[in-house]
Amino acid sequence: MTQSMRAILFFGFMAALFIIEGSTNFWIFSGSWNTSLVILNMALVSAVMALGVNLQWGYAGLFNTGIMGFVALGGLAVVVTSLPPVTESWSAGGYRIILGLVLGALTIAGTILMRMKLPQGRLRGVLTLAILIGGFFLYRAVFDSGVQAVEAIDPSVTGNIGGLGLPVLVAWPVGGLLAAGAAWIIGKTALGLRSDYLAIATLGIAEIIVAILKNEEWLSRGAKNVNGLPRPVPYEVDLQQSAEFVANAASFGLDPVTASTLYVKIGYALLFTAVLVTILVLSQLARHSPWGRMMRAIRDNETAARAMGKNVTRRHLEIFILGSAVCGFAGAMMTTLDGQLTPASYHPLRFTFLIWVMVIVGGSGNNLGSVLGGFLIWWLWVKVEPLGQWLAQVLTYGLPEGHWIAVRITEAAAHMRLFTMGLVLLFVLRFNPRGMLPEN
Amino acid sequence: MDFLNAVVAITNLLIIPATTYGAQLALGALGVTLIYSILRFSNFAHGDTMAFGTVVTIGITTLFQSWGISLGPLPTALLALPFAVAITAVLLVGTDFAIYRFYRKKRAVPIIFVMASLGVMFVMNGLIRFMAGVKDQTFDDGTRFIIKARDFKNWSGLDEALALRTTQVLTLVVAIAIVAWLFWFLNKTRTGKSMRAFSDNEDLALLSGINPNRVVMVTWVIVAMLATTAGVLYGLDKAYSPYTYFQLLLPTFAAAIVGGLGNPLGAIVGGFVVSFSEVMVTYVWKKVAIYLLPEALEPNGLLQLMSTEYKFAVSFAILVVVLLFKPTGLFKGQSV
User: Fold this and answer.
1) Could you give the count of Cα atoms lying within 13 Å of A348 in the half-sphere of its Cβ?
2) CB–CB of B110 and A418 under 8 A?
3) ipTM of the complex
């Protein structure tokens, strides 16, 4: 079977799953188009994330375990771009916060500059410490007073500085930019390391980014979450009140409530599909360009590529930034879809390692494969739970109600997800390491 | 008097917790370092291995308690520990047979091993959730305190209290015993020596007739012991929950790398470096400053360098500094 035949077959199978989900409520399927679209939307976002990881791993062999951090930065971008600015907070302490952050950045920049200018020696060490410690206390003094002032303002409603009040679609590329900026800093420090060190370093960065979101209430409201983020699509309530929409819905034989929820979700699905197709086409073009060939040459034999005069570190930095930017973009899309930012919901197993499973199962190095992996693994992630419950029912068939074995198995079924994902990953790695759609 | 108060305050909330946590991290880091030097990959499933061992211990402890078996003043979990180690060892050796052996035969690159360990991490995480759910669990019984805060205050007449919990002393005693045994084993016994030889130069070790499968198996058994003990001690000291144990991965790796990956002594030192920096940076220095500084200089703020949520940032910062300036770690480990 040729590669393209396989692709058509697998994607046809995926489409069938979504259609069955919408149309029949047999077995584990819900028979609701609404649910089908909910799964599809998140699958589209996951596919974009998988494309980003595939850029890094499939093209360049970089092992990045910090995807969660970039996704979270994308979420933050939605908050700081699309929320209206809180003017009282800005006048109370917003500028002091910015000044504090600038001071902090200057301290670090000053240290690096000083270390570059001075020769190695005791003087340099002492100066480094002096600048860092002095800068830190200066930064904390300015920054903390600003933060206190901002967080004191109406903490149950705002307590943060808000955003720029721009349309929410602008937040998506901003999410990409934020992630790219973070990736530049990380890449500069960690890319020279061997592969598993890079993995550990990025794992740590992601935890820190999420800790910042959880903790810096002036920015992201922390555990209080940011609700009611603006949407790029109309609200269901508004649609239901529009006479024209109700008439249109009736002509399709739908009641206004169902029609409005479907309308909104289809709107998101179309937006996400447009993004996915654009990024897919761009990645594909990049892959077949001289730049893409150079990347793969570096991945397959770094020493040889270096000998040919290729700047390996520079290329790695480029693709690390690009891939992370794609993840940030997807993170912004996801937060827009949810309509809220919940810092506590970022969990590495879900936002880092699950994306890895998608890329490896789909076929590392193959963009279509990553998209397929994104769809399939997300579908599985959602459906493993009903599947587990069904399995529990089959296993406990005939046992009296409330028998302890039955209770135990039903409880365990709720935790099927991670277990199944691990098994899928291990089986694919062992028996089909090139994935469902291998790189050609 | 003020000086004594300051010393007690530092001991109570800085030195004792950091020492305990450091010992727990050191045991964890020893496991990571052993796997790295014998099997040559960073095991991402290590946090979940610790969690697995702890969950089994909790199960056996509950069983013992229902039978009325206890250790008197010591926690029952200590009695359950050997059984849990045995079960974890069976799981780890089984994992090696089912998964890692295949890649070892193929001489796969380290990154493939890391990927496989991600799969193992998922499966183990699922397993522990099957067995014990996701809630926090404490399984500490026996006498809680060796020195009670109130007793100390009455005895010393100081304003500051000092409390010493049984689990804290227990952690240190058990950790020292295990580390002493491990060093004796690695340096004096034939198997230990063959493990070190294998770690130094695999080809040469094979040439001199060392059985690689045996070395690997012994390594997994020792790792099971280290990981389970670290997990149980941490759980006794604080509490068990799957997510906290997963997050222990980062400070554990940091400890192993800071000390020098592959160097057992380094792993121990690394554990204490990480724990002391974490606690010192997140410690509230206000009280100490009030005791030690003249009244005119008394601080307004809490004098906390970073809030507790950022403790990961500390292990991470140490990690980055070491990787940038001394990639082989404080003690010479294997680099690149």
Assistant:
1) 29
2) no
3) 0.89
Nearest to A151 by CA among A97, A211, A104: A97
Span B19-39, pLDDT tens digits:
999 999 999 999 999 999 998
CB-defined contacts A:B, below 8 A: 123
Comparing CB atoms, the residue among A196, A416, A422 nearest residue B119 is A422
Residues sharing a CB contact under 8 Å with residue B64, sequence separation 6 or more, in sequence order: B70, B76, B79, B80
d(CA B252, CA A305): 35
Mean pLDDT (10-residue bins), chain A, 440 residues: 86 91 83 90 96 93 92 94 84 84 90 86 86 87 83 76 86 95 89 78 88 86 84 86 84 84 92 96 93 91 89 92 96 93 89 93 91 94 87 80 75 82 93 88
> What domains sit in chain B, N to C, each tagged with a CATH number?
2-325 (1.10.3470)
Distance from CA of B166 to the nearest CA of A (A): 32
Interface test with B, best of A345, A419, A427 (most B CBs within 10 A): A419
- CB contact set of A307 (below 8 Å; sequence gap of 6+): none
Give the class (CATH, top level) of A3-85+162-431. mainly alpha
Q: Find all residues with CB under 8 Å of B186, minimum gap 6, and list them.
A: B192, B193, B195, B196, B264
| Angle ∠(B30,B111,B327) on CA atoms, nearest 5 | 55
Sign of the torsion angle spanned by Cα atoms B302, B307, B308, B311: negative
CA A95 – CA A89 distance, rounded (Å)? 9
Nearest CB partner across the interface for B313, out of A199, A208, A426: A208
Looking at the DSSP bridge assignments, the partners of residue A226 are A341
| DSSP for A147-182, written as a single string | HHHHHTSSTTT--S-------HHHHHHHHHHHHHHH
Nearest residue, CB atoms, A349 vs list B41, B125, B312: B125
